[in-house]
């Protein structure tokens, strides 16, 4: 059985100050957010994932969205250089966690910017969102690190949402799913299936046919259940107020000896 580990980071007390770009700001309840985060991490553990906490980043309101700090392919972690300068202090603690798990580490260098939420892995293909927090130089550096390892890197436009994975994620069979009004160009994906809710665009593959999804996407969960998948729903409403979703609350590392 492959070892499944997930890097997570508990919410900052300043969570309510987190950045918003494409939505209106709403009040965030930090105590409710902490309970939701604890339920999220417990759900990962219940499905065979060992959760590893990155060092707290209490001065970084967005630090809980740890997925943005790196991209991992096979056993190599490319530590990001966030497009939002206020988020750059988040990366050091996450890098330490990746090193402790045995990852080889590379870093995005100036003037490149890259955030992990802009990278969708489908097999050995890495779709990279270009146009928001990730720039062309960030894509070039990602390509330079991962193409020698067998990755195929495809840059795709992102203009309607914060990150590529705010618009699309992928099912275990490689089908990309998304809410069409927020997807710039569905045709760039080999197989695309629309879902009826924005929150339904986001799935975390827990293993086998089990999908972690937001509780705010019941119709999408029903659709995917009809396709033979088993959705597991968690309430992440406080993080959704900050453009967060189920993917950005963890960095998932499967078998580090051969991770796609």
Q: Determine and state the CATH class.
A: Alpha Beta
The CATH architecture category equals 5-stranded Propeller
Low-confidence stretches: none
The largest sheet, given as strand count, sense and whether it forms a barrel, is: 3 strands, mixed
Describe this structure as you would to a colleague.
Helix content is 21%, strand content 24%. With 260 residues, the chain is an alpha/beta fold. The chain has a single domain (5-253), classed as L-arginine/glycine Amidinotransferase, Chain A, CATH 3.75.10. The chain has a 3-stranded mixed β-sheet, sandwiched between helices. A 3-stranded mixed β-sheet has the order 3-4-5, sandwiched between helices. The protein is globular. The relative contact order is 0.18.
Summarize the structure.
The protein is of the alpha/beta class and 260 residues long. It is 21% helix and 24% strand. The strands form 5 sheets. A 3-stranded mixed sheet has the order 2-1-15, sandwiched between helices.
Please render the helix and strand layout as text.
Blueprint: E1 5-8, H1 30-46, E2 50-53, E3 70-73, E4 76-79, H2 91-100, E5 104-107, E6 119-122, E7 125-130, H3 136-146, E8 152-157, H4 164-167, E9 168-170, E10 176-178, E11 192-194, E12 204-207, E13 210-214, H5 218-226, E14 230-234, H6 237-240, E15 251-253
Please give a handful of descriptors for the protein shown.
alpha/beta, L-arginine/glycine Amidinotransferase, Chain A, 6 helices, 3-stranded mixed sheet, 260 residues
């Amino acid at each position: 059985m492959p070892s499944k580990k997930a890097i997570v980071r508990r919410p900052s007390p300043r969570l309510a100050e987190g950045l918003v770009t494409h939505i209106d700001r709403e009040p965030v309840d930090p105590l409710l957010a902490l309970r939701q985060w604890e339920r999220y991490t417990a759900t990962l553990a219940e499905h065979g994932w060992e959760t590893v906490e990155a060092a707290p980043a209490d001065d970084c309101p967005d630090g809980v969205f740890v997925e943005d700090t790196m991209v991992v392919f096979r056993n190599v972690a490319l530590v990001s250089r966030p497009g939002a300068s206020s988020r750059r202090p988040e990366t050091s603690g996450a890098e330490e966690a990746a090193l402790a798990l045995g990852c080889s580490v590379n870093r995005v260098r100036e003037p490149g910017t890259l955030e992990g939420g802009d990278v969708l892995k489908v097999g050995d293909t890495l779709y990279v969102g270009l146009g928001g927090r990730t720039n062309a130089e960030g894509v070039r550096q990602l390509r330079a690190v991962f193409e020698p390892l067998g990755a195929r890197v495809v840059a795709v436009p992102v203009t309607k949402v914060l990150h590529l994975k705010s618009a699309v994620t992928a099912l275990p069979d490689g089908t990309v799913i998304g809410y069409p009004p927020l997807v710039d160009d569905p045709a760039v994906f080999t197989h695309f299936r629309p879902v009826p809710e924005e929150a339904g665009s986001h799935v975390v593959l827990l293993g086998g046919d089990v999908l972690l999804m937001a509780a705010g996407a019941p119709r999408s969960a029903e659709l995917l259940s009809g396709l033979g998948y088993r959705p597991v729903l968690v309430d992440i409403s406080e993080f959704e107020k900050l453009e967060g979703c189920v993917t950005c609350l963890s960095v998932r590392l499967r078998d580090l000896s051969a991770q796609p």
